[in-house]
Amino acid sequence: PTAAPSFSPTFGVTSRLKHAASSQTRGAMRLELRLGKDLISIKQKIAMNPGIAGIGSSVDATFLEAEPGYVTDLAFPGNPNDAARVVSVQAGVVMGDATGPRLVSFELNLEAASLALYFNEPVSVTNFNASKLVLRERNTSSFVRLSEASTATVGFDCQAIVSLSTGDVNAVGAALITTPFLQHPDDGVLEDFFGNKGVAGCGPPGGLDEHTRAPDYESSSVGLTRGSALPEGPVAVVQALDMEAGRLRIQFFHDIEMSKGVNVTAITVAGSDSSDAWSHRLTNGSYASAGAYDGAGEALIEITLHKRDVDAIKL
Known about the structure:
Blueprint: E1 6-7, E2 15-16, H1 37-48, E3 63-66, E4 86-90, E5 103-109, E6 114-119, E7 134-137, E8 143-145, E9 151-156, E10 159-163, H2 166-174, E11 180-183, E12 229-231, E13 236-242, E14 247-252, E15 268-270, E16 279-281, E17 285-291, E18 299-305, H3 307-314
Antiparallel strand pairs: 1-2, 1-3, 3-4, 5-6, 6-10, 7-8, 7-11, 9-10, 11-12, 13-14, 14-18, 15-16, 17-18
């Protein structure tokens, strides 16, 4: 498409597509777009406007607009003709959202008696059940299943803040959980805004979408088993090394605390993920936060590499 079409749900709330992509090139009579991060944006708007929750659930509440030239024909001879503007067309068929939210990262603060949970889509805490969550220590049998006395509120649409009960705080302290892992063994810890229960297990997005090369937030099943567990802290989902510009961009599915700084020398660039692959640990460099977390993997750190690190990687 040469211009992005936009959704036009009821009450005039629209969502312009920015990341949707298609693997089709020419000769197709039907255009199929993979929404990727745009789907998260649409769900966020629904979360902030409960009155438009019908979008994507019925043909009566789902409409599409498109600007002139969003596709062209294959006119021959002569130049291709731009498609005319689509003012408003109603969906012919709608397949509703049937997949619940997945837990992708967390932060535990016993001093504040809080547990921040980050999900891959906007969530509702109306039916939150803390007893579906288990905190455990790394590589030990020590664990604590939270009680229903711990309650949750929505921090922002993709984040739930759990207020830990005194009993749960004391239990975690008594279990000597200092390097916490969070296990989500059952489905139903909470729901999305369509009423789908949270999926069993937990884990970050599983790799990149084969077409858009963006994190696969929706369809991946990586880590989604009843015994899967997450280490505490941000989850890096995309790393992009630009040797020409001497920059390394790291994208996180989690908020990041920049006031604590970034230890550039803890980052290693490697030729592969095998233990005997060539690697180089960064020696220096400056960094900046390039974006804020919005529930779609948008927390970014951009590192400007030192010249000697660039030279070492090239060699």
